[in-house]
Design brief:
This protein has about 230 residues and is an alpha/beta fold. It is built from nine helices and six strands; from the N terminus they run βαβαβαβααααβαβα. The two termini are about 15 Å apart. The longest helix has 17 residues. Helix 2 packs across helix 3. Strand 3, helix 3 and strand 4 form a beta-alpha-beta unit. This is Pimeloyl-ACP methyl ester carboxylesterase. It comes from Chryseobacterium vietnamense.
């Protein structure tokens, strides 16, 4: 069976893909790796960057002898997937991204990263703090500033910017029409910049993966990958 890699977003977890595994396993050997710092994976000493996560995906493929992979990436997972496809075109069959933010500037990154203050989250959104602790353990308080640094690094030097035209892999860019992190405009801009792309807008859909209706997403996935 062909290999499918499902990549979670920043502060996410591979558990979010559970509602999809039954169906997707009929067509693919499904892989759900965790990025470092997430779940039970340690935070690396040198901090987190997109480059580091692309290296982790590359190592995962090498270790598991995965070639000609299809990749689905939610949010940051989609950004990592496209970076990997750009660097390893021969190893990637196709990519789907959902809710991936492409318009990274230093200003935008600083704005986003300010929302990742553990003390503020504990005070203002205690249920989110509990959720983060249940997924990532006590190190969630270190994970937040590490992800904030990753965002700022991405804002200073977004690796995909000006390089979309070089990615010839088939790609489907997907975004929810109620996503408050990612605009329809940036998604459409990237779709137009990629030489071999499709664009799908999910109606009445917000950014978090657990707010996406599985049937809607599965139908779009099946359509893109010609699964019957």
């Amino acid at each position: 069976m062909p290999n499918l890699i499902l990549l979670h977003g920043a502060l996410g977890h591979s558990d979010i893909f559970k509602p999809y595994l039954n169906v997707l396993s009929s067509y693919f050997t499904v892989h759900t790796p965790l990025f470092s710092g997430h779940g039970d994976q340690e935070l690396p000493e040198g901090g987190l960057t997109i480059k580091k996560y692309v290296e982790e995906l590359s190592e995962y493929c090498t270790m598991n002898n995965l070639t000609d992979v299809s990749v689905f990436g939610h949010s940051m997972g989609g950004y990592v997937a496209l970076c990997y496809a750009m660097e390893n075109p021969d190893n990637v069959n196709s990519v789907i991204t959902l809710g991936t933010k492409f318009d990274w500037t230093e200003e935008e990154a600083i704005k986003e990263s300010k929302m990742l203050n553990p003390d503020v989250i504990l005070e203002k959104i205690p249920q989110y703090a509990q959720h983060l602790e249940s997924q990532h353990g006590t190190k969630w308080k270190q994970l937040l500033p590490a992800i904030a640094d990753l965002m700022i690094d991405l804002g200073k030097n977004p690796p995909l910017e000006n390089n979309f035209a070089t990615i010839t892999t088939p790609v489907q860019i997907m975004v929810g029409d109620k996503d408050n992190m990612v605009t329809l405009e940036e998604s459409a801009r990237v779709y137009r910049s990629l030489p071999n792309a499709k664009l799908a807008v999910l109606p009445d859909t917000k950014h978090p993966m657990d707010k996406v209706r599985p049937n809607l997403l599965l139908n779009l996935i099946k359509d893109f990958w010609n699964l019957s």
